[in-house]
Structure formats: structure tokens, C-alpha cells
Here is the input.
Amino acid sequence: MNTPILETERLLLRPFSMNDAKDVFECWSNDPEVAKYMFWSCHENIKETEEWLFFETSQIEKNDWYRFAVVLKNESRLIGTVLIYFEREIEDWEIAYNFGKKYWENGYATEAMQKVIAFAVNDLHISEIIGRYAAENPRSGNVMNKLGFRYEKDIPYKCNNGAVIRNGIQCRLLLQQEKR
Here is the structure.
């Protein structure tokens, strides 16, 4: 299934295109504060962002990788990204999200992820999702709590392409009751 277009009251979630490079670079990929707790490293130049986008656009038709560009509908402005994908390392579906810091503390991550979770239940028929975040990043933990994720265990959390290992937290969201 191709990555679909989803919509919330304030947001449009759509597949990325190569035309998004400048907006992604300027909004978050070149910001060390945004990258601090992410698996990826801060992009030093737009070419790195273009390489990232090339990978992301090559995933659009896959059945285990759904990366969305998050756009403010009233401004047509790209503000972040959300993802649900099958993580082979843990053999489970996982979520990820990041937004330009100008857009933090507005409920956008929660709003976007609620729509992605509904897509996961209704279209992908997923029964549970994992979320992992750095313990030093309580904002991410707050998003997961609002989405209904529950603490599962402490984990090592890789940041900046594995160059930094932080204390992390793994949470789980159960979406459907198993039939007995």
C-alpha cells in the first residue's frame, strides 16, 4: 500500500517529495536541538537532506514503512514528520516523530500520531505498536502518554547514528483486544 494522504483538523499528512528538501532542512534537519534525541545526526548541508528524502521517497510503495510529511493546513507549511514502520530489530511496529522546534508545544505530534494510529488500526490491522524515546526527552514521553502508550522497560537508546547512547524508555500501545 502506498503511503496515503491523511488529514486532521489542523494538519495534512502526506508522502514526502524531493521538492521538500529546502523546507525540511530549514525547519528541522539542520537543527542540533531537534537532532539531539533522534537516531539521525543533524544535517550539515541540504545535500544530506536530499539523500534522506531520496531514501524516504523510495519507501512510499512499501508495506512496512509509512513516513508522512506533516503540513499545517492553514499555512501550507511543512512543520515535521511522523512515521510508523515495522522495526525488524524488535519484530514489531514502531512509531517515530519529530518537528521543527518552532512547532513544539502545540499538540501537533499528538494530533498527527492519533491519525497515524487510526490508519494503523483501520488499514494495516495492527494490534500493537512500540514507542521508544530518550529518558532525557520528557516531551516525547508526554506525547506517548497522551496517545495511550504504557511503560514497558528501560532500554539503551541510540542517537546520532549510534554515536551517542542514552538511557531510553520503551512503551507499548495495545490497539485491539485479542479474540479468545
